[in-house]
Fold Trehalase.
Amino acid sequence: MALPLLSLLPLSPLFALCSLHACMATDSDPLLSFLQRVQSDALRTMGPTDFDPKLYVDLPLKTDLSIAVSAFDSLPRRSGTIPISEFNKFLKEFFDEAGSDLVYAVPVDFKPEPEGFLVKVENEEMRKWALEVHAIWKNLSRRVSEKVKKRPERHTLLYLPGTVIVPGSRFREVYYWDSYWVIRGLLASKMYDTAKGIVFYLISLIETYGHVLNGARTYYTNRSQPPLLSSMVREIYMRTGDVELLKRALPPLLKEHGFWVSDIHQVTIQDQRGHKHCLSRYQARWYQPRPESATVDEELSLKLTPSEKDAFYHEFASAAESGWDFSSRWMRNSSDLTTTATTSIIPVDLNTFIYKLELDISTFAKITGDNSTSQKFIESAKSRKVAIRSLLWNPNLGQWFDYWLDKHDAHQDVYHWNPGSQNCKIFASNFVPLWLLAQYPDSDQLIEDFDEELVTSLRKSGLISDYGIATSLSNTGQQWDFPNGWPPLQHMIVDGLANAYSKEARSLAESIAINWIKTNFAAYKKTGSMHEKCNVESCGEFGGGGEYIPQTGFGWSNGVILALLEEFGWPHDRDVSC
Ligand SMILES: *[C@@H]1O[C@H](CO)[C@@H](O)[C@H](O)[C@H]1NC(C)=O
Ligand SMILES: *[C@@H]1O[C@H](CO)[C@@H](O)[C@H](O)[C@H]1NC(C)=O
Ligand SMILES: *[C@@H]1O[C@H](CO)[C@@H](O)[C@H](O)[C@H]1NC(C)=O
Ligand SMILES: *[C@@H]1O[C@H](CO)[C@@H](O)[C@H](O)[C@H]1NC(C)=O
């Protein structure tokens, strides 16, 4: 297999544009600028061990900003560092605790043992655990304090009414793509109102910002995350038949679609026969360190020139928009994070999600009687399907690959397709289109002739380990790489295979699901909590790597466990341990 040479290319000239925008957004948000100063001083005072920069941009102010700023400016500094006791005194006097602007709220539709809960789970030990996982919804359930509504200028948290489910630990607020798997779990838990509440909240973000934010904070306003809102709506609709929900969701989903096909995201690629195709990429509107990780981004960029810095911050924030932050998938050199080049890549999963968004919009429009929108989106989906098949599918290797845009085309409107620019490295995202088998089994879909070859190609990929599907095959120390296995990736691939018209695919799906459930169960028994990711090589071991310590809670992990148990059940006589 010929590996693309693009990993040797320097940064794209596209980035020349970026410095124009530098320093706009944080400067226009005085609270965020101030909290970043506090964060940066905190690092000097506290030292790097277990330092979490996000903690400081999450602090709610107790007083008006100007008062806190003056107090901060008059703190004593010894050779540039604020003494720890002074610093702690200042924090206590001027801030409430991070996360205290979210309050616990038991969801109205939570029942300790809902009627019809996981009827196929017969094994008592498994059932007991499933009920414990279900009960964690209470722990992860929050309401935004009225304080935020009253004085939004003192909080980076965005106000929202109603009860929501957060991922947990440092992820104190609602996240976009996490919410899809949270909702899958809530549906297994029969918590339809809570699921709808999350959807309404995400819709309100589209109404305000034109897209769903990465998360519910002012510092996430300039990037989104993998677009799965239509999938959330569809799942809820399939359980509840709620046509009002579709009516309410349709206009914002049209707006969101516009965001993903707007200039920043969409590119035109001409194939070898002269046909032009449109596909999308991730691209944040952000050219500075990510506020929640500014000290990390600044440290990483120390060796770069000022204009390279702007480009790097832009690419790094764009990787965060992909949900895969961070990964060799976006890096030209997998041992150097500053070579992250997200906007030069056309991702398989993003285009699968947008394709599905188009099918969902068409379906919702049809149900609600808007035939012309329905027809229009059938056409959009058809074009995208042709584009994905022509440019991302690789018939010889039996999988879809991300595509690297050629930098020589970057100043032109149209890129020229080059088969050597498919990124033939193996990532779990190469198999995400399989998910559509679960979603649109009988309609016009990406996988025209599903056959055993796709299953063989997945089996041979090396991704399937003893305890789950690995994210990639390279152990780079990044969290979206080997040996980590992430719940959403397990779920999409398993859900797709389980719905294929192939016995072998279904049995592969079941065996991956069983091992995934067992390793999560073992980790839970060992540590008392659910983890955001697992190590696929060893039973009961949670995942590591990346920029923060491994997090527990955990929204999507719990959602995937409940969804898999709902799908496959657990017979009396099946062992629960690895
Ligand atoms: C970031 O988003 C905010 C809110 O939508 C907008 O006002 C601002 O201009 C954006 N910043 C950049 C650099 O595009
Ligand atoms: C990749 O990055 C590493 C670490 O910075 C460096 O040592 C190596 O030379 C780089 N490789 C290439 C091909 O540039
Ligand atoms: C939309 O199409 C359906 C059949 O597909 C038809 O029954 C209905 O009358 C059409 N509605 C409008 C408003 O054209
Ligand atoms: C859920 O919250 C309860 C009460 O605060 C706590 O005792 C329990 O350990 C939490 N469970 C998990 C799994 O986090």
Observations:
- Residues 437 and 496 are 5 Å apart (CA to CA).
